[in-house]
Design goal:
The structure is a homodimer of 417-residue chains. Chain A has 417 residues and is of the alpha/beta class. In chain A, 35% of the residues lie in helices and 18% in strands. In chain A, helix 1 packs parallel to helix 12.
Chain lengths: 417, 417
């Protein structure tokens, strides 16, 4: 296939991770080296930046700072949660994108995000095809939730999992120093899939983890929960550690965070309920029912930005995912997402990179198989440990100055209009 | 002075830290080497373990595991919050301690903790003197609060400060990814002294820290606070990061965590109010008043047990503090606490170890000097940075197995009665 000559644009979308910038480095550094891509643009705040013609000229950046993106958490170009309309109902945004793509001769579009972002990617790709505008669209996966379909795992998940496992081990030690009972409830991010909460099972695997783990894959039953806690309480002399996913729901689909909570319910622009406070609510209920001391801990933003405790495997794979996206596109591929494929060679983990159709991946969520969860629904089996352990291997942390992280400092020069 | 021959007991007290076990290693390993100390006991749950004759025989432990204590967070022997009565009013506990000390021929008592623990140490020391029982009593300081009097800084503080500074830098990047306003309130531990909250100024020093910092050293004024936030909001396009100490109080002495909170007020056994929720309360108030999106983050237990991000300087000093305690006692000293003295040699930080009288240190709190805080009361000056920066230098983390921490596993063999 003849090489397509034209400029490239890259955008970051959705909640950031510790390694989303590693993928950015992979895309940008690789694209800058391609002869067929004269200019590389970075969209400010994802698709919104393209619509508003706000993008940075990445050729102006120092290579040293671009390399530092590998260990810089969060989305360096800015992120967005913006849902494109159905193009058949309202083509305004798509027409505008086409206009911008034409104006800047953009022939390569790389978009880095989770489910919603792959939906955006898919819609843009299909529209450009329909409009007869040649543009190669490749999605780069990203999500600490690890819930993207058709990829063995997602960039960002392993580093968050490593943070969650390590911090849970530390909290385990802290939460049992007194000879008095304490029930400690740890809340982990995860709306519909419990992959990240399940990572606390790594701490349990090392003998310093939760007694009980509750995932959104299973319906949460308050009576059973309180019975589980009581049993663990009696067994462990009042020292209980519980890990819960923020997204656990009861049989009526009501989030546990809504129990007894009079916090205003908000909806984000994708229509998902804003979550938070699940651990706090459960700690209150346990305190009331079991009449014991409780504590709640929310890993909050910390779990998705702790680049000081990232998985080197994750960082390397995230970078490579970005690199492969550009290479695949230049080779002639479009309308796909880069995906990970696990290969075990002589018992050793290896990651291969493949392409999956955007249609397949957009808006489909991958959950933890029921058979990886124990029968009681309160813990993970060895199958999950075997799945996650290779992913968290290797230590990555930013270079330090004064023993504090030195993150990338981009110049962010606006592209000339 | 003739060497005093007898057994030693060591106890850990109060809230744990990342490095309190490093001091334990210092005391235990050093005491085990002393000819004049035939047996070394570790009290289970501090002074309570001694009263109840529950202690471990430390000679039974493997040296490898004792060395691992240097990088194991929390209190390996168990901690306690138990306030000894005034001996003139109720000598019961003291008579019991004397009985136990005599029974086990305990001639060396090392106690590791903060203000309340040094008070315990002081009372025990004075009682033994009065009773004519020769026993050398040396306190080993410990507190993430850094509020102990007569020592330049406290073991445990620097590691917590490093965690707080690093995590704040990471959150800074995460909390500004969208192009929409977000006010993020970070809550840091600290009841009456703001040393740990002030460590967020290190993040600001690196260009990725809070816009506003509120310490318990100054009276908190809600109107001024909201005006400060509004000003920062307008200046920074709605992106504001605020760090607050859990212990901030208004002019009437009311904790901010109590504002609008209908949580039951509890008192711990020292009569301090149980704190928590300050950031949550402030985020709610900001949301209501400024009508903007807010987030709150509590570092919670994480800040005091994150041994994966400890300061190597802190770990080394904490170990040495324990070692010096034993050496000073064997040399003939008693009734003192080991303290740190800072020495700057050719602009390079150096720590010396000295003894301070327990009378001096017990129940006296050291706060941040007013002149280190900016005039507006919303940030720290260079004097504070110069103070704290040398303390957080060097990286310490536990050895890893499967890329997860390998913490010490003590046998905890009960001493024969």
């Amino acid at each position: 296939m003849a090489k397509l000559v034209g400029n490239a644009i890259f955008g970051q979308s959705g909640g950031p991770t510790s390694v989303i910038n590693a993928s950015a480095a992979g895309v940008i550094i690789t694209a800058l080296k391609m002869d067929c891509i004269p200019k590389v643009y970075g969209a400010a705040n994802g698709i919104k930046g393209i619509l508003e013609e706000k993008f940075y000229d990445m050729t102006q950046e120092d290579m040293k700072e671009l390399e530092l993106l590998k260990t810089t958490p969060s989305s360096a170009l800015g992120s967005v949660r913006y849902k494109l309309a159905d193009p058949d109902k309202d083509p305004t945004d798509y027409n505008r994108l086409l206009e911008v793509f034409k104006k800047y001769d953009i022939r390569y579009f790389f978009y880095n995000g989770g489910n919603d972002s792959m939906d955006t990617c898919n819609k843009v790709s299909k529209f450009m095809q329909k409009a007869g505008y040649e543009c190669r669209v490749i999605g780069v996966p990203k999500t600490i939730d690890n819930d993207l379909y058709a990829t063995d795992h997602c960039p960002g998940y392993a580093s968050a999992a490593k943070y969650v496992a390590t911090s849970t081990m530390e909290v385990y030690h802290d939460a049992r120093v007194y000879d008095t009972p304490l029930v400690c409830v740890i809340e982990v991010m995860g709306r519909n899939a419990g992959w990240l909460t399940a990572a606390t099972a790594l701490a349990a695997y090392k003998g310093a983890g939760p007694d009980l783990i509750y995932l959104p894959e299973l319906t949460f039953d308050m009576d059973k929960f309180l019975a589980d806690v009581k049993k663990a309480y009696d067994k462990n002399n009042g020292k209980v550690i519980i890990a819960v996913s923020e997204g656990i729901k009861d049989k009526d689909g009501k989030y546990i965070s809504e129990y007894g909570s009079d916090l205003a319910k908000e909806k984000d622009s994708f229509g998902h309920a804003q979550l938070g406070g699940t651990a706090q609510v459960l700690a209150s209920i346990i305190k009331k029912e079991l009449k014991c001391k409780t504590r709640y801990i929310e890993f909050s933003l910390l779990q998705r930005c702790a680049s000081h405790l990232a998985s080197a495997t994750d960082v390397e794979e995230a970078f490579t995912a970005g690199q492969k996206a550009v290479e695949f596109a230049v080779e002639g591929h479009t309308d796909h997402m880069v995906a990970y494929e696990r290969e075990m060679k002589d018992g050793k983990y290896h990651c291969n990179y493949k392409l999956v159709n955007l249609n397949e991946v957009a808006n489909t969520e991958k959950k933890i198989p029921r058979e990886w969860i124990n029968e009681e629904g309160t813990g993970l089996k060895q199958e999950f440990i075997d799945y996650v352990l290779p992913l968290i291997q290797g230590e990555s942390c930013p270079p330090l100055e004064d023993s504090l992280p030195r993150f990338a400092k981009l110049k962010k020069v606006w592209a000339t209009k």
